Amino acid sequence: MRAMVTVGRADVPKVLSVAKLRKEYGGKAAVEGVSFEVGRGEIVGLLGPNGAGKTTTINMVLGVLQPTSGTIHIQDLDLAAQRSAALALTNFAAVYSPLPGNLSVYQNLRVFGLIYGVKSLGARIAELLEQFDLVKYRDVKCGVLSSGEQTRVALAKAMLNRPHLLLLDEPTASLDPATARDIRARIREFAARDTGGVLWTSHNMYEVEEVCDRVLFLARGRVLLEGNPRTLPGEHGQASLEELFIAVAREPLALERS
Ligand SMILES: Nc1ncnc2c1ncn2[C@@H]1O[C@H](COP(=O)(O)OP(=O)(O)OP(=O)(O)O)[C@@H](O)[C@H]1O
């Protein structure tokens, strides 16, 4: 296979720029010299086998983990130097980070809205309850909602501060196909408003092909491939994104050497 690196459109303002990012655990690199960008209005898929370094990368962008070296800019703000301002432009949703189950949907959105300092919070919550079809669950405790309903609440929470960068770690994992399609449509709507960009991890290649404008393949902490998910498989002699994924996961060294 031929390693090919294409970057996003140069004329699109960047909401995220990551350069030479590295994270070591006990002297062993989990993320090793990763560089990429996410443009405004763009949905970028971060793909890779288990243990590739996706969550570590996302946690560094969220400011949860301190990089060993490298830089992260959210728009023009350096995360290391202007942390609060940079994180105010960001939000995220992940299956492993559920909202407190003993609070109702409204209480959860209110608590997070207060933490984010959202202006006109009542109106913003009403707008999001409407947008994510949650009006009827307003006073229901999050812990009793179905996975699909909880994902919609997590996305509503992630939109509260109108983020410019939205990080989604497997947002549709454990959802039925119809609910997953609905969630994808809402995320596409967010990107189509053209004020924010999305970094999305998923193991569902069908979904990635449908939703992402660009993908990055990560293996052993390095970006091995980058490109359009619809044309990338053909460029590397593979029939589908899934086949390409399997080939990259099995033989990352073949790409690193080429
Ligand atoms: N706190 C930690 N201490 C030591 N090693 C860690 C720690 N966190 C992650 N790692 C290691 O770093 C590597 C990357 O892990 P990471 O969770 O980023 O992978 P991932 O691509 O998100 O995988 P998955 O698809 O399974 O969620 C793995 O080898 C993991 O074991």
UniProtKB/TrEMBL annotation:
The keyword Ribonucleoprotein does not apply. Keywords: ATP-binding, Nodulation, Nucleotide-binding, Transport. Coiled coil: none annotated. Signal peptide: none annotated. Pfam families: ABC_tran (PF00005). Gene3D superfamilies: P-loop containing nucleotide triphosphate hydrolases. The keyword Nucleotide-binding applies. One of its GO terms (molecular function) is ATP binding. Residues 16-245 form the ABC transporter domain. PANTHER family: ABC TRANSPORTER ATP-BINDING PROTEIN (PTHR42711), ABC TRANSPORTER ATP-BINDING PROTEIN NATA (PTHR42711:SF5). Belongs to the ABC transporter superfamily. This is ABC transporter ATP-binding protein. It comes from Myxococcus virescens.
